[in-house]
Amino acid sequence: MNSLLAAGTSPEFALPSIEYRLISPILLVLGMAVISVLVEAFVPRAHRRVVQLVLTFSTLIVALILVVMLAGQRAVTAAGSLAVDGPALFMQGTLLVLALMAALLVAERGVDPAGDAFAARANALPGSIDEREFTKRGWLTTEVWCLFLFSVGGMMLFVTGTDLLILFVALEIMSLPLYLLAGIARRRRLLSQEAAMKYFLLGAFSSGFFLYGSALLYGFAGTVDLGGIADAITANAGQNGLLIAGTALIAVGLFFKVAAVPFHQWAPDVYQGSPTAITAFMASCVKVAAFGAMLRIMYVALGGVRWDWRPMFWVIAILTMFVGSIIALTQTDVKRMLAYSSVAHAGFLLIAVVATNEEGLAGAMFYLLAYGVATIGGFGVITLVRDSTGEATHLSSWAGLGKRSPWVAGAFAVFLLSFAGIPLTAGFIGKFAVFEAGVAGGAGWLVVAAVLASAIAVFFYGRVIVILLFSVPAADGPTVVVPSSFTAFAIAAGLSLTVVLGIIPQPFLDLAEKASIFVR
Amino acid sequence: MSTTHYLVLSAILFSLGVLGVLVRRNAIIVFMCVEMMLNASNLAFVAFAQQNGNLNGQTIAFFVMVVAAAEVVVGLAIIMTIYRTRRSASVDEPNLLKY
Questions:
Q1: Cβ of A205 and B34 within 8 Å?
Q2: pLDDT digits over A386-406, tens only?
Q3: Looking at residue A119, what DSSP letter applies?
């Protein structure tokens, strides 16, 4: 934004310098999202699904290759509003890998006899004659693919933006498609619509906080550039009302997005009500993107006043870890349980933000990757356990699943072990890296609290594993559907990444460490 | 008038928006309150642009208006779907999602 307008008295437009090569992955994903809208308009209905699938997967794969080719780049581009640096590229790569896995779940149409996971037509009233007619004709809501690509593009922008305006716009590009995706489930449509409304109202509410916080920081610094804000903080040492209020409001906006207590109430409802494939996408990718932006804002712009915001983050982190772990214990629905577990993970990740050091950044990036692959795998398993009404998500109906389908139950158990942070899984390495960074960053007591919260979490994940593997199966329990290769591949990828990251983490940790410097 | 007046007004509008989201029960009104929060931010941006002597704040206000318009499209679509299903736009009535 800075140099977009010639400052001061002569408001003439200066042509911004944009290095297109550096932002090619983002441009590709967003450009293909636009083309995907055109596909909806011009390709006949019978061919749309195939065209959209080819377009989405090739876009995500090519973007991932572009990100890998950019590795090692450190530059601020697009008139100082995008920072293509180590953390940005690492998280873009993470997002694309996770988005590919989530796209496999979204593409699945073998587990539901009626078609894929989305309503035949989102505007047909639930239970109406129209709805039955559309379903009978086998119509599909292929618009999910445009929304999916736009959302991925927004997330990639969100971890790259180094300017509060870009961050706000990226936040909305990421969130708006997700609000819609949450509301178009084929089964249990009332739940899905309710989830969409809750997600939308609370999401819009939180972006209001984020924007007002940006306005106050702009008032304080005279610029929305993160580096510029950091310079302004160095220039005006001491307390400043605008600075403190702006920091608090921006933090509140981000706490909503990562579902930190007490701003987490939307998460269980939205995770439960949305189509499970979308829940997987949302739970993993939004967490990566929101923590990416939070780390960048807190490290780059507000690192100079960390003694002011750290106490707030301490309190929120402790509350989030404990409330998430304890309430997860009482849940009877598998999706809600994973939602509270993701709340608890947000608490562990906040330790990395509090640490404000390079180890914290590297640890958080590894943790997000480990958490993301296990989350998508876990929700992938949930899509397979079904009864006549759709997915059987009640925990009691999962009892003794291991006796009937040892592979599926075993995979779910591995994901839970990774969430719990048991050695030889990715989750352990992630937790260890974050806790180590916390101690190095002077947050020793916070880490002690986190270890206690982990113990509670281990107890509740263990309880689920015991129910899953060792209890007697119910007579009229759900069946485990054999999926097409889409879901099978997604779960297999989640499983192998979880184990590989747990057994040979060093190359990935080295990569995260090398990538752990923000440019400004 | 100094910029302080505008900032106070924007703070009042923002607080009214927050309060409205928290206490009102009709989804449309809640949504209008969210829009009011965004517009309060716009007012603050423009006032600060005047105070800081650069145009960034005014440009940002345009971006925010576009984003707010996109948000209206998505939000009204969701609220209308809910209304058609339930014949009500209350945020309390859809309460199937709980423990």
A1: yes
A2: 888 888 888 888 888 888 889
A3: -
**CB contact (8 A) between residue B96 and residue A216:** no
Angle between helices A24-42 and A143-160 (to 10 degrees): 160
Q: CA of B33: which chain A residue's CA is closest?
A: A205
Measured between beta carbons, the chain B residues lying within 8 angstroms of A331 are 99
Which residue in this structure is represented by tokens 């996109």? Answer: B70
Task: Retrieve residue A169's tokens.
Answer: 């716009």
Whether residue B53 and residue A8 make contact (CB cut-off 8 A), yes or no, is: yes
What whole-number distance in Å separates Cα of residue A322 and Cα of residue B83?
37
Give the closest residue to A480 by CA, choosing from A376, A400, A375, A377: A400
State the nearest Cα–Cα gap between B90 and chain A, in angstroms: 11
CA-nearest residue to A173 within chain B is: B67
Chain B CB contacts of A174 under 8 Å are none
Residue A520 CA to residue B22 CA, distance in Å, equals 38
In this complex, which of A191, A204, A205 lies closest to B97 when CB atoms are compared?
A191
Kindly provide the b/e burial profile for residues A45-65, where b requires at least 16 CB atoms within 10 angstroms of the residue's own CB.
eeebbebbbebbeebbebbbe
Cα–Cα dist B91/B87, whole Å: 12
- The per-residue pLDDT for range A210-241, each reduced to its tens digit, is 999 999 999 999 999 999 999 999 998 766 88
The domain locations on chain A are 15-514
pTM: 0.94
CB of A338 within 8 A of CB of A283? Answer: yes
Residue A122: exposed, middle, or buried by beta-carbon count in 10 A (0-12, 13-18, 19+)? buried
Per-residue CA distances from A80 to A13, A127, A164, A292, A405 (Å): 15, 52, 11, 18, 54
End-to-end CA, chain A: 14
Per-residue burial over A331-358, b = 16 or more CB atoms within 10 Å of its CB, e = otherwise:
bebbbbbbbbbbbbbbbbbbbbbbbbbb
The answer to whether the bond into A113 is cis (omega within 30° of 0) is no
Tell me the count of A-B CB pairs closer than 8 A: 141
- Whether the complex's predicted ipTM is more than 0.90 is answered with yes
CB A179 within 8 A of CB A225: no
